[in-house]
Structure formats: structure tokens, C-alpha cells
Protein: Pyridoxal-dependent decarboxylase domain-containing protein 1
Organism: Bos indicus x Bos taurus
Amino acid sequence: MGKNLKEAMKMLEDSQRRTEEENGKKLLSGDIPGPLQGRYENGCAYFHEEEREGLAKICRLAIHSRYEDFVVDGFNVLYNRKPVLYLSAAARPGLGQYLCNQLGLPFPCLCRVPCNTVFGSQHQMDVAFLEKLIKDDIERGKLPLLLVANAGTAAVGHTDKIGRLKELCEQYGIWLHVEGVNLATLALGYVSSSVLAATKCDSMTLTPGPWLGLPAVPAVTLYKHDDPALTLVSGLTSNKPADKLRALPLWLSLQYLGLDGIVERIKHACQLSQRLQESLKKVNHIKILVEDELSSPVVVFRFFQELPGSDPGLNAIPAPSAAASAVGRERHSCDALNRWLGEQLKQLVPMSGLTVMDLEVEGTCVRFSPLMTAAVLGTRGEDVDQLVACVQSKLPVLTCTLQLREEFKQEVEATAGLLYVDDPNWPGIGVVRYEHANDDKSSLKLDPEGEKIHAGLLKKLNELESDLTFKMGPEYKSMKSCIYIGMASDDIDISELVETIAVTAREIEEDSRLLENMTEVVRKGIQEAQVQLQKANEERLLEEGVLRQIPVVGSVLNWFSPVQASQKGRTFNLTAGSLESTEHTYVYKVQGSGVTPPQTPTGTRTKQRLPGQKPFKRSLRGSDAISETSSVGHIEDLEKMEQSSGGQEASEANSHERHPEAPAPPEAEPPGALQDGAQGLQDDRPQVEEPESLR
């Protein structure tokens, strides 16, 4: 079936060449675009469903080729001279374990080659260090067997220096296998030298299904070997008809697309990645990780912002513990912001096929790989432009949030009753917790009273209708509750925000405490009232005598000598929490005034807002972002509001200094007028009749 595939490709290319010759065009053979045309000659194909299955078969072929007695002696041959498989540190996760499980080899047979740390890309295999590892393994009596190189790593799409690796493998007799998404560019007329060197390798694995958007299409492993017996033993070839039919879906799909369709889809994906890469280079605070590889169909970027006084080289240079902790905290904060950015972009531009991933050195990044997603999702150039526009629209939110974090921390630490919670994984302004009176600061266990206060605080904050988002956490209910404040889309007054949180939480705590105290006071007051009423009944029995309690005799005595009994009862004052007698109410027909309830605590900073201005916004006074006419109008409105509030406060202060019953003295009045005014006041004063007991 592999021969039929090659024949079909040759037929298509020959027909195209004949057409061009008839039109009088002279075309060089190296310029003819086509899948591996003239680039991987004398090769065989193995079709498989699992992408890693082809590499496992290649490893078996390499073992049979290097160990001649393996078929007879089996594991004893490997035990005397252990094989070594070399994998890059940037290889896809789980590849080494899969190979060991399929081949029955122990994990020490794997050798992970680190990437460059000083020179070159941090995702390319360190060739010098690889040569050192090979020499060390040979000295220990091991056999370097196979090297897996990357033409486009699974994470960021970097290509190893395949040309140098091929020279090293030929020197030590190592089988070289190449895999990666950049191998798709071999179908184009222009290929980078690093990817073109992959055609000289011993084997490679291709995945045309994701590249071309074809479902249920097998992967292909191309290899070069002259011994059909070893390929049969390794499982690369088979005499079963069912195994030969694996290539049928791929062959039919390629026949449907044609040569031009295959090249067009791969070229379109590469153009999308180059378009995004060129656009992101013009955007500030966006770093691209694959700038040195223009031909790579993978674009990986992340948001970054250097704070004042920070050194951009701190990530690569070892620092003391204090500096290292600060750098680590800053990196975790940027990772949280990049994770938020990636999720937002995925929701706003779903056709882009973005993925969020975590890299060991760079941290959290956003990856755009149109070669794996564009054919399925139908990504177009307009989607890339929309993606860039969304990135630019989210940058002010990211920069503003990152700048306000330190100010929020300082304000919370300076406010009594609030505790700043350091959670670098939260993509927002910060996390705060209110410490109530009965809060156990040394324990992190669940606090029911604190959870109740924070639930009420969250409800109050969401009712303010501000641009900020508030959330209560953490997700794990075994810890204390906190208030998580989201991203800031504009200049926020952090001092007002923190003060509002503190005052609102204090009000909720006092209200709940007042309710609890009131319940206890009412219960005790009822018990005390029952005792006093029972005592009053006993005193009344002693005053009236025993004879008056007899039914017939008591009625006669009460008819001859009635008892002047006063109405006695009890009233409970909820404000004062005291039990009082009702005698004053029945005698003077007036209820007691009681005690004035305490005022609800309010913030010390009262901010005047313009109509329509949302909470937590900074004042427009002195702002350069508004026009001159609008700024003058806003400033005049603010000054009028401040003057009116100041005049009211001054009038209230003057009224409190005067005696409440003494009228204000007029400036100049004749004596007669004063007397007439006094008589008028006496006439207008209501006449209150005093009780007989007070006369």
C-alpha cells in the first residue's frame, strides 16, 4: 500500500510537470512542491493508529539490527550490554515511559538530554552535552542505540540542530528518528535548512490527520532499511490483508484533496502563524518565544511587564533567598495573569484554537498552532486580526491590575481588622480577609462566624454595581473564607475600596452581634419578668388577706370594702436591655423615652460622586485623560457639591452651639416688640394639665 501511495503521488507530479512543459515553462525539480518529493528517497512506510506506535517499532528494528543474537538469546544479550535511548528534555511527556513499557526495558535505559542553558534556544537539544553523555555510556559498557530529535517540539515548536545530530549519530552508529509538526513544511517549496536536514535521518513520523483536518486517518512512519526479514520481525511489515488496508483512508483522502489541496492547507496554516507573529511583534508587553524560527507554524506568546527597579535577567541568574522569593512571587503573578488572558482569548476568539500551557522556564504561555487546528476549525486571517485586537484590548486591564496589587497590599496591611492573603495564583487585585473579634488567627480551620460575615460582605459588595468583580473563596471549604477581588479595568481608588470593605464588614459583624445579644437579653428579661410577676401576685395575696380569696366571702367583703388595687405590669426595653414597671405608663399616660441606640459606624472618608459615576473610581480632578470643557464642568460640579456640604455642616455646628430653647436674638428690636414676642410665645405654648398627685 505504501508503494501505491508513492505511485499515486508520482502520477500527480508527472501530470503537473507535463502541463508546465507544454506551456513552455522551465521548472527545476527542486522547486516543485510536493509531499517529500525528491527529499526522502528509498524509504518504506508503516501506517499505525497510535502516534507513538511507529517509534516503538523503529526501536525494535534498531535492537534487532545492533544485537544480532537478540532473536536467540533475548534479554541476556541486552543484559550484558544495556541499550540507551536518548530523548530531549523538551520531548512530549510520557514518550520515554511508553517506549520502555512497549520494549520491556527498564527506565535506566532512558537518557534525557538537557536543552541549551547558555547559548542558543532553551528548547533545543544541547549537542555538546549529548556527545559527552554518549562517551560516558560507551565507557560504562553501554550501547547507544537510538536518538529521538524534534522538528518542532510539542510545546513551542522549536527544531533541534538535526544536521549536527545526524553527524554525531553517524560517528557513533546511532539510529536517528525525527518527529514534530514542522515536518509538514517539507511539502512546501520553501523549507528551512534545519527542517530540510530531517530528510537525511533514518526514520520520521508524520501525522497528516491533524495537519490536513482529516478524521480517522492513520499516522505514517517512514524509515530506511534494506533487510526485509528484520522489518518483518520488528512488526513494520505484515502479510495480513487487514494490516495493508490501514492506508486506505489516508490514500482516499489524499486522492480527494489532490496535491494542490495538500500544499494549500499547509501553506495556509504557516501563513496564519506568520501573520500573528508579525502582528504581535508590534504589541507592547507581549513576548514571543519563537522569534528565531520564522518558518515554524507554532506561535507561543505571553504577557510580561517589568516593574520599576526589576532586572530582566533575574530569571537566569541565581539570586539570594529574599530576591529569589520576590522573583518567584512576581513570576507566579504573571503566570496567573497569562492564564486569565489565555482563557479570555479562547472565549472571545474560539476559532483560533488557542491552548494555555505551562513551561518550566518561561511559565504560563498561550500557544497558537494553526497546523493542528486551522483545518478543523476553519481559521481565517480575519480571526487572527480579531485575536490581535482582543490582545490589545486586554493589555490595559493586565497592566492596571499588576500596578494596583502593591498599593492594595499596603492599604490592607495599614487597615485595622483586615488581613492581606498572599495568593499569587489569583489573577486579580488581591485577596483580603476580615478578622472578627472571635477569630482565631493561629488556626486555618473553617470559621462559621467568619464565613457568615464574608457571605454578607460579598452580597453587599456586589450590590454596589461597580466595575470590579468579587468572589468568595477558597474553593477548599476546610480553610477560612476570603474575599477575592478581580481584575481592574480602570484607575481604581484603592483607599476607598479597602475602607468600604472594612466598614461594611464591621457593620455586618455588629449587626449579627446585636441580634445575638438581643436574643439573649430577651430570654433573660422574660425569665425575670415571670419571677417579678409571681412575686407581685404573692404580695397582693398578703395585702388582700385570705378571706378575700374564698369565693362567696371574698365577694361580700369586696362589696362592702372594695380594694383599691393599682395596675402593675412590666415592660421590656430592647434598646437598653432593662425590665421596667408599667406604673409610670398607666399613671402619667406617657411611655419612657429609653436610651438612644448607637449610631452605625461609617467611613471617615466620604467621597462626593457625580451622577452616573460608579463606586471606587478616582476623582476626575486633575486628570489629563479628559477634555478641557468636560473637565471644567466636572470640577465646577464637584466644587458646588463640596461647598453645599460644607455650608450644611457649618449651619449644623452653629445650631448646636446655641441653646435649643432660647430663640436667636434679633439684631435690633424695640423693647415693646420683645414683650409682644414673649406674650406670643406664652400664648402659643401648649397647656399641659398636671396630674392631681403632682399639684
The domain at 44-257 is CATH 3.40.640.10 (Aspartate Aminotransferase; domain 2).
